Please model this.
Amino acid sequence: MTLPLYDSGVASGLLSGMLFGYVLENAGFGSPRKLTAQFRFSDWSVFKVMFTAIVVAAIGLYVATAFGWMKAGSIFIPTTYFWATLTGGALVGAGMAIGGYCPGTSSVAVAAGRLDGLFFIVGMVLGTALFAGVFDRIEGFYSAAAGPVSQTLPELFGIPEWLVLVALVVLAVLGFVAGTMLERLYGGPLSAAQVETEGEIASVTEIEIVEITAG
Amino acid sequence: MPTAVRPFWPPLAAGIVLGLVLLLTFLLNGYGLGASGFFTRLTAWLGGELAGPVTQANSYLGPFLKGANPLASWISWEIVGVMLGALLAALTGGRFRLRLDGAPRLGGGGRIALALGGGVLTGFGARLARGCTSGIGLSGSAPLAVAGFLFLIGFFIVGIAVSFLTRRIWA
Model:
């Protein structure tokens, strides 16, 4: 058996998707308040979960290749288009800070009963249509400053892959420590109980009514 | 029969499991996980249904309408799976509830407006970056692609910067 299987079938998609969605919801990533709290430094779950996942998968891919279970260069590695990659990431970050989600987490939110996730998806469809509408005019920017095809960090820095992995583990540990300290400073990460009981529209209206009557 | 609200998984545990799911997906399909690719196909399909000639003539979405239905793709099944998996987690965790979530300091109209506006920026940005937080950020960084880390640098820096403007309504 050679890996990867290059299985693009229905069962493969459903299996990966179900596991992905199950983990994301259990991590609390269906909540827009928890997701945006990362940017306010009060909840470092997004950084912690993503960075850990990247390190675990990176080590797994390294081991699978080293043991010959998988051929080097057999999986898809995206190419950098400096300005488009950076600006695109920036817009997705801005979109999360404003709308509360990214594409994957908005799907998780909808599945957990959040109607605002549906509006976020409508927005994404409009944004995609807008991009398609102006594509011919921004094609130069879209393809500008292209890096070497499928360039990786070991290639960029000219150092061995294991050293990059060690550096990422060190960064992850530092990030966990710093993140946990900042979480304490800013009130701590949002628990499931907080996410499920606070921030209701009803309670906001009550606060407004109390303020109006008090004023 | 409402289930009591169960706590979220600790971030380290969730991260390890997510990393293993990502690794499994790489070994299965050779591409890793994604999400925005589905919404591109959804946009192409909707465009084809509502404004066929315009969408077919479009240099970005047009190619999606050639050949099979743009929704007949691995990533569409993956998103169906994501929603099923998330539904299962929310139901068993006592966290499924119909609601209009969003910025706690806003009413319904404001929450809808922010969700729509944020969605537009995200939809546009994900096309520009050739992927989203899952497709480029996560699945690009795992095989150590420069593109993955560059995406995440832009994502976090601008997310934090914009959050300075929106924190009063989101906190």
Observations:
- Chain A is about 70% helix and 0% strand.
- Chain A touches chain B through 137 residues (CB under 8 Å).
